[in-house]
Amino acid sequence: MSDLYIHRLTALIDQAAKANEEAFGQAASRFADSLEGGGLVHLYGSGHSVLPVQEVFPRYGSYVGFNPLTDPRVMWHNVLGAGGVRELLWLERTEKYAEKFLDHQPLNKGDSIIIFGHSGRNSSGIDTALYAKKRGIFVVAVTSKNNLDKPATHSSGKRLADAADLVIDTCSPIEDAIVPIEGWSRPVSGSSTVLAMILAHELIARTAEQLAKRGIELPVFASPTISGVTLHDTDVIYGVYRERMLEAQKKHLPTFQATMRGE
C-alpha cells in the first residue's frame, strides 16, 4: 500500500518552497538586520500555532536571537477542563487580550516578529501584528493564503496576512487535513503545523546564511550527544541568550513604564 499522507505533504512542501522563494530572502534579510543590531526576532502563536514557536527556539540547530512569546493561557494543557482547548479557543478570539500579554514583553523598534496562524482570522495573532507594527517591528505572518477568501472577523477589518509586512504562505488547504478516507465525511491528518515548522526552519537557515555573509556568527545549540559537546556548552549559550534578553528588557523599560502610566 502506498503512503496516504506523506506524498500529499511533500507536494505541499514543494509548492510552498516555490511560492515563498522571494519572501524567504526578504524575511531573512530583515531578520539579519534585527540580529546584527543586537535586537530580537520574536515568535508568536496560539493553539497549535504555539508548536512552531517552540520548534524554533530553544532547540538544537537554532541560535541566540530568537525570542519565543509563549502565553500559557493560549496553549492547551488538557483537552477539557482547566487549561483545556475550549478555553483557549475562546481566548484567542477575544480582541485586545494579546495586548495585555505583550505589554510585558521586550518588543523594541528594529526587532522582527514571526506570527504563526493557519486561518489568520483569530484576534490573538492579528492584535499581535498590529501591536508590533505600531512599535516599529517588522512583522512576518506564516499563514495559508487559501484562507484569504474568508472574510475578516476582526474589528479592524484585517486578517493576519493583511496586518503583516510580509506573508509566508504555508499553502495548506482551508480544512487543514489532507487525506480523504473512503466512507468518512471529513479528511484526516493535518498539514498546517508541520508546514509552518518546515518553513520556519528554512527561515532559520537563510537568516544564518545572511549573517554569515556579514561576518557574523551567533552561538548555535548543539546536542550534548555529539562528541566534544557538553551540557556546560549549552549553559554557556543560555548565558549569552540571557545577556541579550537583559539588554532588550532594559531598552524596553521606558516604554513599559509609559504604558503602565497610561501614556
UniProtKB/TrEMBL annotation:
Q: Which residues form a coiled coil?
A: none
Q: Which PROSITE patterns match?
A: SIS (PS51464)
Q: Which domain of life is it from?
A: Bacteria
Check the record and name the InterPro entries matching this protein. Answer: SIS_dom, SIS_dom_sf
> The SIS domain covers which part of the protein?
31-213
Alphabetized SUPFAM superfamilies for the sequence: SIS domain
Query: Per its UniProt record, what Pfam families does this chain match?
Result: SIS_2
Q: Which NCBIfam families match?
A: PRK02947.1 (NF002805)
Q: What is this protein called?
A: SIS domain-containing protein
Lineage, opening ranks: Bacteria, Pseudomonadati, Pseudomonadota, Alphaproteobacteria, Hyphomicrobiales
